[in-house]
Design brief:
Order of helices and strands: HHHHHHHHEHHEEHEEHEEH
Distance between the termini: 59 Å
Strand content: 5-15%
Largest sheet: 5 strands, mixed
Structural class: alpha+beta
Shape: rod-shaped
Strand order of the largest sheet: 2-4-5-7-6
Number of strands: 7
Number of helices: 13
Helix content: over 70%
Length: 532
Amino acid sequence: MTGMMRPRARSLSAWTTRRWLRVGVAVSLVVLAVLGVTGAWVLGRTATISDELVDVRSPALSTSFRLEAALLNQETGIRGYGLTGTPEFLEPYRRGLADEKTYTAQLTQLLAGNTRALDDLRTVQDALSTWQERIARPVADSPPGSASPLAGERAAESKTAFDALRRAMTDQQERLRAERAGTRADLAETMRLRNWVFAAIAAVIAVLAGLVFEGLRRGINRPLEQLAADARTVAGGDFDHPISAAGPADLRRLSDEIDFMRRRLVRELAVSEEARRRLDAQTADLQRSNAELEQFAYVASHDLQEPLRKVSSFTQLLQRRYGGQLDAKADQYIGIAVDGANRMQTLINDLLDFSRVGRVHHDPVEVDLDSVMERTLSAMSVGIEEAGASITHDPLPTLVADATQMGMLWQNLIGNAVKFRRPDRAPEIRVTAAREGELWRFTVTDNGIGIAPEYADKVFVIFQRLHTKDAYPGSGIGLAMCKKIVEFHGGTIAVDPDHRDGTRISFTLAPVPPPAPSTIAEATRANAEPAP
């Protein structure tokens, strides 16, 4: 027996929530259907008995009384006419005859199918026929004006015949009363049965509701609550807490999958912890490298520039003192040396500025880009006036940024727009600003020589030039520095490939710049450290 129960238990444990619900709903529907059929049968039975009582039994008994009254009217009229010969006594007799036919037809219709009651009615009709043939009709046919001799002669026979008719009517009425009483008893019994059936239906529905509620609580709510409690424990940081599986098969599978995810998360956290330790080591190396870069910047700005200034100064002195005194080749060599020294000094300064972006910066503050733009245009006013440039801009927003780097961004973009102008037209430069989701999008549009689409990415690479230094001077660092500044402030920059008449540089800036890498590393390390 135990061996037979175990496979059944295993098969039930494999049932899913959907299957349990389907079986429960099916069983509930079957039980409710049986109860509904039973209730409908009881209601139909009650209605049938009630209709029989109201439409047959009671009307049959009352019609029997009316028939008896019609017969009494006949007997009274015949007796009075027989004793007096007065024609007025025949009126109740004739009315009784008409009522007798009516009530007899009604009784025949009401008692259809009731053999015993119809037999009683035939007995009454037979007794009535005997009385009418022997007494009523002969007396009624007697001439009026005087007492009927036949009435006196057959008085005893008349009494005997009518008494037999009375007994037949009495027997009929007693049977009809008994049948009506039996029908009433059946109706009362059926109504009691109906009440018990509906009480049982209500009790069964209540039991089914209780079973459904308890089944949902034990099979679904309790496992889900346990799963939620385990999940909250894991979410609270106790990643070693197992997820217990309970309930139907699908809920157990869900618990197992969540527990598998927890175990995988534990493994991933171990890997992440190892990666964090390596990241801390790399961050320390990066900080040391940054320190070395700062030292290099100091050396480049002081130790390297000092001999470069001497070379530049002495070549310039050589050019001023001996220019024109030597041959043309010597003057050319001296000019090349002076130009190279000046370009080297410019290149070193640009490299220092490029290396400082994202490494040496001021704390972000609210910066009014309109004010930064005005200061930049003021600083570049001489070059702008010489080129005859026209510069307009939209109202610019206030962002949290590095004010110095914002000035370098405008200076490089507007400086390029002025530098790379067409020789046959004055530069027209337009700066726009518009909110785009969480970012601000800016565009700097000019009517200059433009940038070919194949060079749209190359121009942002350091030292990449599209023209010779003789055609357009510069170090090739300007747009690379702009790209570094924009990315440091959480945005992107690109050349608009759809703009044809000149160049359009489009870039975005975040209202608040993202945290520096060193800040992220410190925050990660602080979050990873266990609470005391």
